[in-house]
Amino acid sequence: MMPQDFVPVLLTFAVVGGFAGIALVATHFLGPKAYSPIKQDTYECGVDYIGDSRSRFSVKFYLVAVLFVMFDLEVVFMYPWAVNFRTLGTFGLATMGIFLVILTVGLLYEWKKGALEWD
Amino acid sequence: MQTIIFALLALVSLFSAIMVVTRKNPVFSILYLVLTFFCFAGFYVMLGATFLAAIQILVYAGAIMVLFLFVVMMLNLREPEELEGKNTLWQTMGAVVAIGFGLLVLAFLGRSPGAGVPNFQPGEEAYVMGGAKALGKLLFTEFVFPFEIAGVLLLAAVIGAVALAKRKRV
Amino acid sequence: MPEIVAFLIEKTLVTIFVFIVVLTVVAFTTWIERIVAGHIQMRYGPNRAGPKGLFQVAADGVKFFMKEEFIPDRANKVLFVIAPTFTFMAAGFIMAVIPFGDRIMIGGREVLLQIADLNIAVLYVLAIGSLGVYGIIAGGWASNNKYSLMGGLRASSQMISYEIAMGLAIVALLLDHGTLSLRQIVLNQQGAIWHWSVFSHPIGFIIFYVAAFAESARVPFDLPEAENEIVAGYHTEYSAMKFGLFMFGEYVHMVLGSALIATLYFGGWSIPWVTAPEEPGLLWGLATFAVLWIKTYFFVFVYMWVRWTLPRFRYDQLMNLGWKRLIPIGVVNIFITAALLVVFQHLGIAG
Question: Which of C76, C127, C141 sits opposite B57 (nearest CB)?
């Protein structure tokens, strides 16, 4: 494992990003252009639009994002544990057991509080 | 080759960091911040901390910034110009912090010119140390107690989030 | 030729080769999907352009480029234009770590049929995968259309919810393999067919597969673009190649996701009971390459099969499945796997 192992990753970034960029530019020049105010209008099933979409949305989406950050962090702690598990053995099982219990308490609390209900 | 890649990463990260603070539309600030985090991950890789680099993107760019984006979008921003208040107090405070931090960096570089510059050509052992395996070995033997405490901290955060967002409903 | 130049040339060639293969497969997948859909619904599917409708792929490609691109007047123009590239790139970057084949010897030089064999490959896939949210949410927000915004929000909430389940399934797998390198995981599964991880981690596989379906936002998880509720979701306002990049991104995501499932749970490029020759030549490389794609395409086919068979979830059902079913099962699965491994270790049986 050496730093140059990551150079091909940069190459991939360049190739994939380059393709996306070229595709965007090409379609810009190849496609016809016919401006019309009605065509460029916001689509709202054919009727005149009401307001715009810069309005507030349900706090539920935000709650899901917050909970995701917490649980994502908890899972992140498990990766270094998992790759070392064979050497850690029973001790590792106990360590992660305590951690998982703490995690489960959090999940149960959410559940009982109704944070996981969507309606 | 390391120097060229480092220079490129440094340029992009500086550029995007400046864009983060100068964009009027916070959605763009966040996207530039994601780019900055990407460059940081690049630095971590060059220093041998590959696990940290992956976590940097997974947690910061992939999770926390999504949350930021939700917050910004929830704030009902119609015209980005509305944000632009001429608040001299904040501007002075910002300037003081920026100058103070700049002096700190200069002082650090002045005191230890050699150690201040990180080694961007680490050997094989740095890559072993920075991998998930070595990190896990240390975290789950020597630092088990802090690890469990981190679990409790996360539990507190979960409870806090639920308590805030689910106040007195149903 | 200095080593560094040779290395760069080799990796550039491998990268371009892999990219072209992935792109070709993805292009034909769009055609095969319609053929499969046609046969499931007792009709022909595309059969006009060329023999068996084979030129439909080219016709679609040309059309994507030649169509007029609209940019709604009230949209955030810059973000509207670049958002599709985010989706496409987040899906395409994953190909960097997928082991498409074994190493081969060409002129005394060892060439790996994989762009980069990273020691954090599994985390790389998850990290890049988690960035796919940005394209969708940025596109939905920038369109300044209520349907787009709803689609973007639904998609991002759905993707982040199932990311945790996916992570938990992978942790259980890593307990067994003890490495984050995808090539090493494939090597561990060589030999008899029951060495494939799916036999030792069936629950993890099911969680992973369901989560992968949800991540790719396809039926039955296609709430973000539920056409009878929110028109076309986050790409309502998109046209021409900008829409093409969204669609291509989805298909790249599906194909590479299937390749990942094949790699993690079904032995990747390894052929059951066949060991690598001492001097792996081009033939061996092609064989492993083909084996991976056969396995991958089986899962791509299942994606299509499911798409034309199952109805769509309701959003609350989707969230319930993610948070109340998959995550608890994932946690229990990790604990059981770990406990069994400890027991096996004490009994002296190698897992």
Answer: C127
